[in-house]
Design brief:
Chain lengths: ~290, ~375
């Protein structure tokens, strides 16, 4: 039998070179979707194969890797991907945003500010921001080439006409470097401003759709809006029940079937760091504080 | 009290342990061997090799065993392994005309040089469940006869001699064969890439598309010119040696559909081709593939593109079952964050709606 033997970080060096070339091109043309010959990875398409391939291509033995899904290091898919690289690359892993050199993420940008030298790798399901307006790739590539984004503005305008708001709450389209309209992956629009002028390199990998794109450090990233309907962030108006943070994106936890719910930081590392620093919320299991009634 | 969404690592490990246990089933029942799968579930193995794009019966059998008989999961396992293999180059085009034929039929001519060879087929069997098979009755030994030494030329070549069918495009030695697993696909795609996509495509998806074309959605009047199944030699051009070196043989099924074409101002009317090729004995797959290959040639042949089966971007973007299953099943992954965003927006819209409509007493209270 042809017993499998795998390279450092799983992918063979030829494939890594191919992906690195795509990444370099993506960095050179911010926001442009570079086609690449995505491989079958040992996890399913749609579960982060694009992000995993980008991470595998840029990872070196000295890197420190953090993987989050929904902002959390402890969700099953984040654990699965972290273990994959722990096993195939033997790199150090961390849950700390500050300590990581490479952060692979699904659906969130960490709350703690990123710094120069870090790389944020996004998992992207549908890289094409115009896809739901125009299903054809041949058409959308032409629209990007011509900078023909009227359709997107009409869609946003129609939202306002129907709902009084832009009814896009995640995967909210942005314009990168005043040229390409880009899908930020399904992050909540709360995270959009963090992409703007970010000192870290942001790489986006879409495995199934075979696209890589990038935002180089310190690039202008503007959320699409109108003068009279400026872009706004959404955040549930409550402090985190565990750490009391008033500035973090919150997960809603349903606590019973009688309408009981609580709100906690979606970024688990941010929440834990704050709790360690002594911050407390209404539901903290803190020793110095009366435990909330069950 | 809130229980943190944690402990995923232990949960995953335990889930995988349980999966391995369930895969094995009742441990009092003897375990399946790879040889049993390869020999007795051979058409499943053929499908996994075809859609997995890797000719290795043993690995395909292992994949089926590991996947608990879920063929798409098995195809996925084979694909993931294949993706890590180095690529040395492309073989010489295989000569299916020189195939050691185990089955070969034509529905366009009553008799053909080399004859109609039924071979092992479900065709004409009565689909009655066989209780004797349940008891493990040994089948009769197959009837044997002298092997024919006569050539079995392809039916399409016979038609081609009189110019009744368009010629097969000749192999171009200087033009590298496209490979969508190594180069990203772009549209419009050439026929080599379309055929590669169709060869890897989900059998059920192609079956439905081919069927839709027969029912009028992109109709092109097909005849099964020939279906043949057997062994062909594979040769690889060794640059150092300067000649083609035989690598071994593979079992293939080939289907050549013969389709109508009315001709044009510059071209005399002639039949056109639809082509299907797959590993092992995969007749449904190759026939469906040949139908869809032909419908996808609509643009090339100046036919109006009106049906899904004629739309190459639609077909090629959705034919891969590993991609499709991944994306459909990724909905199982957590989406708390986006859902929270949507929830926030929806609550806001409902609140505004309630204010605007100044909630009459009967209306459901806003949250």
């Amino acid at each position: 039998m042809n017993a499998p033997a795998y390279n450092f970080a799983y992918l063979d060096e030829q494939t890594k070179r191919m992906i690195r070339r795509a990444i370099l091109k993506a960095i050179a043309i911010p926001g442009y979707q570079v086609p690449f010959a995505s491989r079958e990875m040992p996890m399913p398409y749609g579960w982060g194969t694009g992000g995993v391939q980008v991470t595998a291509a840029i990872l070196g033995p000295d890197d420190v890797l953090k993987v989050i899904d929904q902002g959390s290091d402890d969700t099953t898919n984040a654990i699965s991907i972290r273990k994959f690289f722990g096993k195939t690359a033997g790199v150090a892993t961390t849950t700390s945003t500050t300590d990581a050199t490479v952060i692979q993420t699904r659906h969130r940008i960490p709350e703690a500010p990123l710094h120069a030298g870090q790389v944020l790798v996004y998992q992207v399901p549908i890289p094409e921001p115009l896809r739901f307006l125009e299903p054809r790739e041949t058409e959308t590539r032409r629209m990007h080439a011509l900078g023909e984004y009227g359709l997107m503005h009409v869609k946003l305008y129609e939202d306002i006409a129907r709902f009084g708001h832009i009814a896009t709450s995640y995967a909210y389209p942005v314009k990168v470097n005043a040229r390409y309209v880009m899908d930020p992956s399904p992050t909540p629009k709360f995270d959009n401003p963090k992409m703007d002028n970010c000192p870290a390199l942001q790489l986006f990998g879409a495995g199934r759709e075979k696209r890589i794109y990038a935002i180089p450090p310190h690039t202008d990233v503007v959320s699409l809006d109108f003068e009279d309907h400026p872009f706004t962030r959404y955040r549930f108006d409550a402090p985190c029940a565990l750490c009391g943070a008033g500035d973090s994106y919150l997960d809603e936890i349903v606590t019973d079937d009688k309408g009981g719910r609580m709100f906690v930081c979606s970024d688990t590392d941010y929440c834990e760091q704050r709790q360690q620093a002594g911050h407390r919320g209404s539901e903290s299991a803190a020793p110095h504080k009366e435990r909330a009634h069950v | 009290m809130y229980v943190a969404v944690k402990g995923g690592e232990r949960a995953i490990e335990n889930a995988h342990r349980l999966l391995a246990h369930e895969r094995r089933g009742d441990r009092d029942i003897p375990e399946l061997s790879l040889a049993q799968i390869s020999e007795q579930l051979s058409l499943g193995v053929d499908r996994v090799m075809t859609e997995g794009s890797l000719y290795d019966r043993e690995l395909a059998a292992l994949a089926i065993k590991q996947a608990r008989g879920d063929l798409i999961e098995a195809i996925f396992l084979v694909r993931a392994f294949r993706a890590t293999l180095p690529r040395f180059g492309a073989t010489e085009p295989v000569d299916t005309g020189a195939m050691q034929v185990r089955r070969r039929i034509s529905s366009t001519f009553k008799d053909i040089p080399g004859g109609q060879v039924l071979g092992p087929t479900f065709d004409y069997t009565h689909r009655l469940l066989d209780p004797q098979l349940a008891d493990g009755a040994a089948p009769d030994a197959p009837a044997t006869g002298e092997a024919s030494t006569g050539a079995t030329p392809r039916v399409t070549d016979i038609l081609g001699r009189d110019g009744l069918i368009e010629p097969s495009p000749p192999a171009e030695a200087d033009v590298p064969v496209g490979d969508l697993t190594r180069e990203p696909l772009s549209f419009p795609a050439d026929r080599d890439l379309r055929l590669q996509n169709l060869a890897r495509a989900d059998e059920g998806f192609l079956l439905a598309l081919g069927y839709s074309s027969q029912r009028g959605y992109g109709r092109n009047h097909p005849f099964a010119g020939e279906i043949r199944f057997g062994e062909v030699e594979v040769e690889f051009m060794a640059e150092d040696a300067g000649f083609a070196v035989p690598l071994g043989s593979v079992a293939l099924t080939e289907c050549q559909m013969v389709n109508q074409f009315k001709g044009s101002a510059t071209q005399a009317p002639c039949f056109t081709r639809g082509y299907g090729l797959a590993f092992g004995q995969s007749e449904r797959k190759t026939m469906s593939m040949a139908l869809v290959d032909r419908t996808l040639r609509a643009r090339e042949l100046g036919e109006e593109v009106i049906a899904p089966a004629q739309d190459e971007e639609f077909v090629m973007s959705h034919s891969d079952n590993v991609q499709a299953t991944g994306f459909v099943e990724h909905l199982k992954l957590p989406h708390y964050v986006d859902f929270q965003s949507e929830l926030g927006l929806l609550r806001k819209l409902r609140k505004e709606f309630a204010v605007a409509n100044e909630a009459p007493p009967m209306q459901e209270a806003a949250e």
